[in-house]
Specification:
Layout (H helix, E strand, L loop, with lengths): L9 H5 L8 H17 L3 H17 L7 H15 L1 H11 L6 H5 L7 H30 L7 H9 L2 H25 L2 H7 L4 H14 L1 H20 L5 H19 L6
Helix pairs in contact: 2-13, 3-13, 4-7, 4-9, 5-10, 5-13, 7-9, 7-10, 9-11, 10-11, 11-12, 12-13
Length: 262
């Protein structure tokens, strides 16, 4: 792995070459992601994770105004949570057997420390989004929380402050979403795939977005809409949506970033 003093040399930061891709490539990545999920379904595992997390959220009584930021923030940390599924796609691509042992065995990967470091960065972005959402709500409504969904929705859709919250909150959330997408869209698969440092992976990910702005914007929209539909289906839809998006992310990485020279 590269030494830290080389991280900011132009030749190092130039990193892997990034391709310009089109709609056909994006569609193929989704098809291949669905094929990986079909070959090794993981919906029961995700059901076993999603519902306890949802239950904990209900038990600790999180204030209703943070419900949307928490749900939307799931997309910010999703790339880190899906690291085991990238490994499944990687092994299937190489023609190797892929099992849950391999998926969880990623914790022994050479890239685990860089992956954890990048995961921590996403958690920081997530925390900043939550704090921003909380500060915006308090600036408009004060510190008193609504006591029911009916009161909360009336507050949001029936007042001028509520519409301001929707407008400003959407704008702020969009900024955080673009930031998270830019630093993570291909960086986690890349860290798993080859021996590079976190700055190189982030640089390559940002470059992939800059080279393919419309395709990456569409990919971000697909992720957001898919997760929203998953939440609407009483969280159960996430058990399919999350793994399919994760496998598709691996194949998107393969299409955007040129393979390492042999």
């Amino acid at each position: 792995m590269s030494n830290s003093h080389t991280l900011f040399r132009p030749d190092v930061l130039d990193g892997p070459k990034v391709r310009k891709i089109g709609l056909a490539d994006l569609k193929q990545a989704l098809v291949e992601g669905l094929a990986d999920f079909s070959a090794m379904p993981s919906h029961l595992v995700f059901l076993g994770l999603i519902y306890p997390v949802a239950g904990i959220w209900l038990m600790i009584g999180n204030p209703l105004p943070l419900l949307f930021p928490l749900l939307s923030g799931f997309a910010l940390i999703g790339p880190f949570a899906a690291i085991g599924l990238y490994e499944v796609s990687r092994r299937r691509e190489l023609g190797l057997d892929a099992s849950w042992k391999d998926a969880f065995g990623v914790v022994r990967s050479h890239a685990m420390f860089p992956i954890l470091s990048l995961g921590l960065l996403l958690l920081v972005i997530f925390a900043c989004w939550e704090y921003s959402a909380l500060a915006l709500y308090r600036s408009l409504f004060g510190t008193t929380w609504p006591q029911s969904f009916t009161q909360f929705f009336g507050q949001i859709f029936g007042t001028t402050e509520g519409w301001k919250l929707i407008g400003f909150g959407t704008a702020i959330g969009f900024v955080f979403a673009v930031l998270a997408l830019s630093v993570s869209v291909v960086s986690f698969p890349m860290l798993l795939d080859r021996e590079v440092d976190v700055p190189v992976a982030i640089y390559t990910s940002v470059k992939a977005v800059l080279v393919n702005p419309m395709i990456m914007a569409l990919w971000g929209l697909i992720v957001a809409v898919s997760l929203a539909l998953g939440f609407l289906l009483v969280f159960a839809g996430l058990a399919v949506v999350v793994p399919v998006l994760a496998h598709s992310t691996w194949h998107l990485y393969r299409k955007v970033v040129e393979p390492a020279p042999r």
